[in-house]
Write a sequence for this structure.
């Protein structure tokens, strides 16, 4: 059975949503702890404008400050050519380019329509490939609102596939289908994952779920049942869903790893080490996290028999 | 496609776990509101000793106080012959008998080993069938720790099936497989559900999940994929898990209904009416509930595009 590949997104997707700036040294310490757990990749930061996302203004210090290991890929979000050049100067393994599948979400979140994003992608990919350190860098694209848009509702599969076609033509090597606001359900996930793998058999697809309506793990299960082995997940379930107030964030890494390991599906991740890293999050971010296994313990936890 | 049958357990499994007694009139009002949502059954209360569970001391008043409807079954937990006689006097459609699959959980929770519980079952079933109002009553048995015991760990499938054999021989008509402390994973659920339906093809099985480790909906999905159509669930996700402090309770009714309805699986339930009933729970129980759809809204909720 193919081992899963987990891409940890808390340092980027999680920390940018927090109320407070997480000190750079704390970020580095957490990423270093995560690096030895067996995660395939860590989305370490975003080389976005410090004005746009002040919480990630320390992107360069984080990337150059962490301990690098050959067995964990360092991926970073890059929104534009300038960000790509800053990222490449830091030395990274993968860049993640983000765009929306729907116009209104693209404009609200990125100030770009999908068409404008694709133009941006072309410029970024050219800059990466022209850079002396950029030839070995893997280029991934995350497609927000692939399972629905919080403003427009349904996003047709034909639209998603048309955008993926454009991405691949530009040189994108892997695609992340994002359920940005937790709208996906398992039947829809199975349909889109099956169709995407059938239409683009050479493209590695990653699935990015939010647990907004409690379906995060059910959706991951449905995706895995179609052959998907790459998942984004966020330690502790950190991460925001700005359009669904009160809702939880990304699917929780340790809960996802726990489910698959309990099922006998190898994740390559040391769950105890991951849980230890998650346990320090409340101190780091100043609030409880939505992760459940870190509170309840693993399913094989045994309790002493209560005395009468 | 067969329509699901949802058995709402919050009035029993939920309210008995709350810190405070829910006033009888509030219970009746909630059950009456739930009765018109399309739920197949409501586990209304438990005819347990008021000393054992003071929060359900009003069992008789609740059962006789609610508005009865022909399209919703009123089921009650009965722990012994006395409870069964009190329940029958109130007029109910179904009795639910509870036992554990593991000795230590049975002794800790019910003060009875499974063998002792089966003796109790025999006496209760005889009392029900001998009662003038008892002939039409459906007899269900809930088998706790079917997916693992918090004290003993794994519970072998052979043990579960041996106990079900005994139950059916005594006159039990339906069996609920309970993941009492949220230990089950989707692969295990699929295995046990497939094997149980194959071994006991004439027995309606209900699945009872807890969301202790976040897998509640994933487990329900896995069960449904094997042909299971009957689920216990608790409004708001109320319900305790006394052996997993800090963990959430039963799988949440409205989140379960929402997932299946989004998938195109008919539940027969009016989700909006269910969400309205769930929205009053925090006032009733004095705390937030774990349910997520009641906070985030349904997946097809559309938001206004943010102004720049």
């Amino acid at each position: 059975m193919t081992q899963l590949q987990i891409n940890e997104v808390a340092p980027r997707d999680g920390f940018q949503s927090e109320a407070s700036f997480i000190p750079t040294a704390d970020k580095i310490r957490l990423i270093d702890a995560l690096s030895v757990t067996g995660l395939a990749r860590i989305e370490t930061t975003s080389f976005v404008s410090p004005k746009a996302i002040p919480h990630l203004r320390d992107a360069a210090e984080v990337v150059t400050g962490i301990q690098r290991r050959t067995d964990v890929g360092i991926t970073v979000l890059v929104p534009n050519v300038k960000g790509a050049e800053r990222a490449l100067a830091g030395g990274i393994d993968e860049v993640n380019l983000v765009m929306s599948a729907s116009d209104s979400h693209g404009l609200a979140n990125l100030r770009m329509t999908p068409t404008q994003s694709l133009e941006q992608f072309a410029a970024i990919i050219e800059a990466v490939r022209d850079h002396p350190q950029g030839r070995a860098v893997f280029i991934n694209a995350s497609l927000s609102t692939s399972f629905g848009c919080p403003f427009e509702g349904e996003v047709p599969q034909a639209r998603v596939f048309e955008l993926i076609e454009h991405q691949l033509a530009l040189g994108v090597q892997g695609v992340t289908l994002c359920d940005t606001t937790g709208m996906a359900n398992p039947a829809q996930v199975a349909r889109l994952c099956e169709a995407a793998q059938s239409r683009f058999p050479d493209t590695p697809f990653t699935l990015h779920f939010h647990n907004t309506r409690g379906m995060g793990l059910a959706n991951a299960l449905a995706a895995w049942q179609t052959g998907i082995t790459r998942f984004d997940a966020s330690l502790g379930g950190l991460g925001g869903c700005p359009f669904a107030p009160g809702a939880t964030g990304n699917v929780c890494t340790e809960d996802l790893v726990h489910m698959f390991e309990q099922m006998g599906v190898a994740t390559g991740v040391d769950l105890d080490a991951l849980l230890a890293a998650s346990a320090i999050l409340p101190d780091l971010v100043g609030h409880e996290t939505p992760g459940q296994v870190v509170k309840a313990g693993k399913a094989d936890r045994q309790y002493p028999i209560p005395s009468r």
